[in-house]
Write a structure and sequence with these properties.
By secondary structure, this protein is of the alpha+beta class. Helices cover 47% and strands 16% of the residues.
Length: 230
């Protein structure tokens, strides 16, 4: 990883949120954007003000209803303290975020039980979201959350069944967006086939199937961003 990428502003999200099936992919990307806005504004206030039309544009959300649903999903998950009945007209949308992730406010003792995954903020650029989809962004965070980068061979080897269970996507959707991430060279996948494992007590042939390995290329996130910028 280059020095430039290492120094890039990172968006940290708790692994328990990344792996929560109660948080759909649109809602997940909205939450990541709210954390980004909170940090960009100096973490001084838990209340974030933004024009909801601008928020929809930045997140590539097509309808007011979808934005409102995502906001209220975060409210129900207690990740924000604002419930929206109607989006405001002629005034900013105000969202109070639950800043439990801010160790300066919450205290390290309380937060030590959480583990976090970070990705470059440019992943939340509208052009990146358009290219990768909300599910693609979520999967990048998901795979990275299982990678230990202190090891020489760092990869995620979670099964498709576990991915489905932990982020609530169908197998076809997962495979579709894995394909998009591979096409854009943000992940590589080492596939594993069935291997002969011998015979059981009834002389039945047994096979062992190892999970695929998913490798996230953080540096290529920066390269794709520069390419999309033109």
């Amino acid at each position: 990883m280059t020095t430039k990428t290492k120094k890039m502003f990172q968006i940290q999200i708790a692994d328990k949120i990344i792996r929560s099936p109660q948080i759909d992919c649109v809602t997940f990307v909205l939450y990541a954007k709210l954390i980004q806005l909170y940090r960009l504004r100096g973490s001084q206030s838990d209340t974030i003000e933004i024009d909801h039309a601008a928020l929809k544009y930045f997140l590539n959300i097509k309808s007011n209803q979808k934005l409102k649903t995502a906001i209220n999903t975060l409210y129900n998950a207690k990740l924000i303290r604002t419930k929206i009945d109607t989006l405001p007209k002629n005034q900013p949308l105000q969202i109070e975020i639950n800043s439990f992730f801010d160790l300066k406010k919450a205290g390290k003792t309380k937060e030590d039980r959480f583990s976090y995954t970070q990705m470059p903020y440019i992943l939340l650029d509208r052009r990146m979201i358009e290219t990768l989809g909300h599910a693609g962004i979520r999967l990048l965070y998901y795979f990275e959350s299982y990678i230990n980068r202190t090891k020489t061979f760092s990869f995620c080897f979670t099964s498709l069944e576990t991915i489905q269970k932990e982020i609530g996507l169908s197998e076809n959707t997962i495979l579709k967006y894995i394909g998009i991430l591979k096409k854009n060279k943000l992940i590589s996948v080492k596939k594993h086939k069935l291997e002969f494992a011998g015979y059981d007590e009834y002389d039945t042939v047994c096979f062992t199937k190892y999970n695929n390995h998913y490798i996230v290329d953080i540096e290529n996130i920066h390269k794709l961003y520069e390419k999309l910028k033109g």
